TrEMBL record:
InterPro entries: ApaG-like (IPR050718), ApaG_domain (IPR007474), ApaG_sf (IPR036767)
NCBIfam families: PRK05461.1
Domain ApaG: 3-128
Pfam families: DUF525
Protein name in UniProt: Co2+/Mg2+ efflux protein ApaG
Length: 128
């Protein structure tokens, strides 16, 4: 698990390897990740949007951005948390993800970024 705190918002990420499959005559490696967002600040906040950079061992880079997470824009009061699971496909057994969430402080209406720590994606059978 990796963790990082930005502006009182704690991000924790756990990853899993889900398996391999063929798509368009290429092998793909499926990874899952579970993100927990915990508001350790004194203000209520809302997650407005996300931005991810996904890298694999073959130097392929994918950028993903959009509103909220899995169709939600959760509001977190002080001490509250939100956990969700998602996943990605790579064309190699190793990779990494990193990014940030764009948040709104609902008390001040200020926008701010919360950084998602870089985390590794690796197929366990590919490790020595």
């Amino acid at each position: 698990m990796v963790q990082q705190v930005t502006s009182g918002i704690k991000i924790s990420v756990e990853t899993t390897f889900e398996g391999t499959f063929y798509k368009n005559y290429k092998v793909h490696f499926a990874f899952g990740y579970r993100v927990s967002i915990e508001n350790q600040s004194k203000d209520s906040v809302q997650l407005a949007s996300r931005y991810w950079t996904i890298l694999d061992a073959l130097n392929n880079v994918e950028t993903v951005e959009g509103d909220g997470v899995i169709g939600q824009q959760p509001v977190l009061g002080p001490g509250a948390s939100h956990t969700y699971s998602s996943g990605c496909l790579l064309t190699s057994p190793f990779g990494a993800m990193q990014g940030h969430y764009n948040m709104i402080n609902l008390n001040t209406q200020d926008d701010f970024k919360v950084f998602i720590p870089s985390f590794k994606l690796s197929a366990p059978y590919a490790l020595n």
